[in-house]
Amino acid sequence: MIRDSETLTILLDSIRQFVDEVLIPREQEVAETDAIPQDVAAQMRGMGLFGLTIPEEYGGLGVTMEEEVRIAFELGRTSPAFRSYIGTNNGIGSIGILLDGTPAQRQHFLPKLASGEILSSFCLTEPDAGSDAAALKTTAVRDGDDYILNGTKRFITNAPEAGIYTVMARTDTQIKGAGGISAFIVERNTPGLSLGKNDHKMGQRGAHTSDVIFDNVRVPASQLIGGIEGIGFKTAMKVLDKGRLHIAAISIGAADRMLEDALRYSLERKQFGKPIAEFQLIQAMLADSKAEIYAARCMVLDAARMRDEGRNVSTEASCAKMFSTEMCGRVADRCVQIHGGAGYVSEYAIERFYRDVRLFRLYEGTTQIQQIVIARNMIRETQQ
Ligand code: COS
C-alpha cells in the first residue's frame, strides 16, 4: 500500500512518463509484430508492474483499489496489449489465490507472479459456457491425492505466455450450477495440458488468447484453491468484481488518450479556412466525450474507495464497468468521426484504438451481464 500521497504521485508520474516515452512510441511495433518487445517486458519487471496489487509480504507493492485504478488510468493511455501483459498477474490470474488460497498456496505462487518471473491466466470461459459461467463442463475428479481434469477453456488471455492457470472445474457433477465448481492452480508443464492456436482477434494485437485443453491432467489436491471443494464459482465472481473495476479504469485511460489525440488533430486540421476545433459540431463531440470521461472517472474512484472500505461492491463494480466501457465505445466512435477519413486509416492511432477498445464491452462480463448483476442485486436488496 502506498502510504502517502507524495509517494503515490511519484509512482503515477513515473508510470505516466513510461507510458509517454517508452510505450506509446512502441505501439505500432506491437501492432505489427503481434508481440510485446522483450526489452519492454524487462523494463516492466524492473518497475515492479507485475506485482502492483500483490501484498508486500509476497514481493509486490500491495496497492489499494483506489491506487490501482489511478495507475490503470495512466496505463490505459497506451495500447491495451501492454496492460494485458501485466494485467493477469495483477488481477484475474492472482486474485483468486490471494483471496481464497491457503497460506502455502499464496507463499508458493504469489512471489513468482509479483516479480513477473511467470505469467498467469484465469480459465473460466468454455466453448459452451461464456456468460452462463456456472454451466461450465470441465471436470475435476478426485483420485487419491490428486484431481484429474478434463475439458477445454476458451479465449484465455495470456494463455500462451502463462506459467500457471487458475482453472474453474466441476468437482461435483451431481450439482449442475455454481455449487459444484472448484478452483485449481494448474502449472503449465503438467502432462496433458495443451494450448490451441492463438486466436485471430479484431484488435489488441500483442495480447494473446487461446484455448487451454485439459486431457487427463493430474493436479495435486494441494492445488485446490483454499483446499475446499464447491467454492470455486464464488472465488471467480469475487475475482471478477475486482477485475471489472480495473477494466473500467483502463477504459477511462483509453478514452482519455483517444480524446487527447482527437483534440490535437482538430486543432491541426484546417477546413473552410480554420482549425476544425473551432466548429461547434466538433466542439460538441469533444465536450460530450470530456464530460462522460469525467463522470466515469468519478464513478470508478467512488467504487474503488468503497471496496477499500471493505464494502461489497458487486453492484458498483458492474455499474462502473458497464458505464465506463460503453462510454469508451462512444468516445472511440466520436474520435474516429473527428478524424474524418484519416480516422479510418492506420496512420493514426485512433483506427487501432477503435478496434482495441471494443473488447472492453465484452470481456470480464458483457454489458448485458453487468445489467443482470446490477438489477438482480437491486431486487435482492429490496426483498431482504
Ligand atoms: N461475490 C461472491 N459471491 C457471489 C458473487 C459475488 N460477486 N456473485 C454471485 N455469487 C454467489 C451467489 O451468492 C451464489 O451463491 P449461493 O448459491 O450460496 O447464494 C453463487 O455465487 C451463484 O450465483 P448466481 O446464482 O448469481 O449464479 P448464476 O449462475 O445465476 O450467474 C452471473 C451469475 C450471470 C452473474 C455469472 O455467471 C457471470 O458473472 N457471468 C459472466 C461471466 C464472465 O464475466 N465471464 C467473463 C470471462 S472471465 S475474463
TrEMBL record:
Keywords: FAD, Flavoprotein, Oxidoreductase. Residues 6-117 form the Acyl-CoA dehydrogenase/oxidase N-terminal domain. Gene3D superfamilies: Acyl-CoA dehydrogenase/oxidase, N-terminal domain, Butyryl-CoA Dehydrogenase, subunit A, domain 2, Butyryl-CoA Dehydrogenase, subunit A, domain 3. It holds the Pfam family Acyl-CoA_dh_1. Residues 232-378 form the Acyl-CoA dehydrogenase/oxidase C-terminal domain. Transmembrane segments: none annotated. PROSITE patterns: ACYL_COA_DH_1, ACYL_COA_DH_2. InterPro entries: Acyl-CoA_DH_CS, Acyl-CoA_Oxase/DH_mid-dom, Acyl-CoA_Oxase/DH_mid-dom_sf, AcylCo_DH-like_C, AcylCo_DH/oxidase_C, AcylCoA_DH/ox_N, AcylCoA_DH/ox_N_sf, AcylCoA_DH/oxidase_NM_dom_sf. Belongs to the acyl-CoA dehydrogenase family. This is Acyl-CoA dehydrogenase family protein. It comes from Pseudomonas synxantha.
